[in-house]
């Protein structure tokens, strides 16, 4: 068995740290050597860990059986009673955490874990919105994680309504709005317009489109609706996938970095190239520099040795 420390928002923070951005993680870890090792790993990535609490609950786990070719990967979760599930609003000083922040990123994994995680996140989003931060929402609906009585679709719609940038596509919009838009360009644009109408705080929608020829052979491209125009990138092909875990987080991190430094089209291209590169890296985190991402954007996909 190989093990890695990961988690959706942490993966994004770690990738942004590799890009040179200041990041901070808000979470709980176990009050034992495993939690200590998790914090040490985050520090190694360059993440500010000052908002992390240690609690007397085990670190959450998931188990991945890696697929190959026509055999799909499989995941089993063991997170319901873990340390993060026991986070509470009184632990988190959102005013202090958000004081100098420009972005707050969240995914649908967090509010799915427990009622207290949902409540803690909601307070953070409300405070971030009041402060005028850009809030990136990756709804990432996982039906088998919602086990504490809340309707996941309703919760995600509520939290997306507190956000400004939606990282997702037609499938995620259909789940939240309970609609059935198609996956064509026109369907994506109409779905994006419907989301913005239902959740007016959303300004832009950025989607990652994946074509899986097999577990080992993937294609990805990005598309976006900016509220005024449709954008799209070229498709990138990964013929020898090393690890698919964290590729969506790599896309989100690339997008946030891109939105900080570039206009929308280049931000979308940066996100897609970052996503493609993560397929070639073992573990949950996209350990690449902005320069490496921009090389792929410029067409350097041959993988020649650099000497």
From TrEMBL:
One GO molecular-function entry: kinase activity
InterPro entries: Carb_kinase_PfkB-like, PfkB_dom, Ribokinase-like
SUPFAM superfamilies: Ribokinase-like
Keyword list, A-Z: Kinase, Transferase
Lineage top rank: taxon: Bacteria
CDD domains for the chain: KdgK
Keyword Kinase: yes
Protein name: 2-keto-3-deoxygluconate kinase
Species whose genome carries this gene: Zunongwangia atlantica 22II14-10F7
